[in-house]
Write a structure and sequence with these properties.
Layout: E1 6-12, H1 18-24, H2 27-39, H3 45-51, H4 56-62, E2 65-71, E3 91-94, H5 107-125, E4 135-139, H6 141-149, E5 154-156, H7 166-174, E6 179-187, H8 189-197, E7 212-219, E8 221-223, E9 231-236, E10 239-246, E11 250-253, H9 261-273, H10 279-286, H11 295-307
Parallel strand pairs: 1-2, 1-3, 3-4, 4-11
Antiparallel strand pairs: 5-8, 6-7, 6-9, 9-10, 10-11
Helix pairs in contact: 2-3, 2-11, 5-6, 9-10
């Protein structure tokens, strides 16, 4: 018996850099390609994440996904949350972005926070036994938007999160606020269970499966504290809130499971040329950019999360 087709709305919050734009045509298509690759059980699915869209229409039908992309930045587009039950969305994915999720005055960001708050309110007011519930997935900027909508503080990574003594504090003050390239996330007990305990996904690249998650990062803003009633998924030395989970409602990650080496190389090159990354930081990040990562492990669990009752 075929699975129900998942209806997913991608809220597109940025524009790709030139090489990625040439390949994917728009930012939301990066996330769409990632979801299609995550839905494929074939061994070549990891390559499809690296190589772009492929035959998107055919892949989408085969994967039993119905994915729409909404330009929330330039067009102010948002899906209708009042659809009848037959056409109701199963999930909304808020993408990453170069913008600041904590911006106090940017209209489209305020509209996105308001939309997310409305969706969270609809979730809490619905009766799961009688209504289809639209779940929320947040990626990087989207993770921060969800946290802000839930009342958490979001801002620049200027906090020393793991100080043990003055020497440690001095070292961290000299370090960059950025977390970039492939990084290890130390999973919480909830994170281990979520990503590895219930998943039929193939093997992970993590050295000790279930303890850490290797994922692309590209951020200098962080969620400072967990909102109420949220389960932590993991942490890293530069970012304590690496992911949030509310069963049946919300899953977010600070990293970029949808990114691949090609995309991250371009971002690193451009930001190095702009002086955002110094030579040493750039070279160190480029040294990690080709490492194996768990993007598809995260993607498969995200789709399983959307299918869970």
């Amino acid at each position: 018996m075929a699975s129900k087709t998942l209806r997913i709305a991608i809220l597109e919050c940025d524009t790709p850099l030139p090489r990625a734009l040439d390949r994917y045509k728009r930012y939301g298509a990066i996330t769409k390609s990632f979801l299609l690759a995550s839905a494929s059980p074939s061994p070549s699915s990891s390559q499809s994440q690296e190589n772009g869209n492929g035959n998107v229409d055919k892949d989408e039908k085969r994967a039993e996904l119905d994915i729409s992309i909404w330009d929330v930045v330039n067009k102010g587009e948002f899906p209708n949350l009042e659809d009848d039950r037959e056409e109701a969305l199963d999930g909304v994915v808020i993408t990453g972005s170069k913008w600041n999720a904590w911006d106090p005055s940017e209209p489209w960001i305020l509209n996105l926070v308001s939309f997310t708050q409305k969706l969270l309110h609809l979730q809490s007011s619905q009766k799961p036994q009688t209504q289809t519930q639209c779940k929320i997935i947040g990626i990087c900027f989207g993770h921060q938007i969800v946290a802000r909508a839930m009342g958490a503080d979001v801002g620049r990574n200027d906090r020393n999160l793991h100080n043990e003594d003055e020497e440690k504090e001095e070292e961290e003050e000299k370090s960059s606020p950025w977390e970039v390239s492939v990084c290890a996330v130390q999973l919480s007990e909830c994170g281990r269970k979520f990503f590895f305990g219930n998943s039929s996904s193939s093997s992970s690249s993590s050295k000790r499966v279930g303890e850490t998650l290797s994922i692309f990062q590209m951020h200098r803003d962080i969620v400072y504290d967990y909102p109420p009633h949220v389960q932590p998924l993991g942490s890293s030395p530069r970012c304590e809130v690496q992911g949030m989970y509310v069963p049946g409602r919300v899953i977010t990650v600070q990293g970029h499971p949808e990114f691949n080496e090609e995309i991250v190389r371009e971002i690193l090159e451009v930001r190095h040329a702009q002086g955002i990354f110094g030579d040493a930081e750039y070279e160190e990040a480029m040294g990690r950019v080709g490492r194996k990562h768990d993007g598809l492990v995260v993607g498969r669990r995200m789709l399983e999360f959307l299918r869970e009752q």
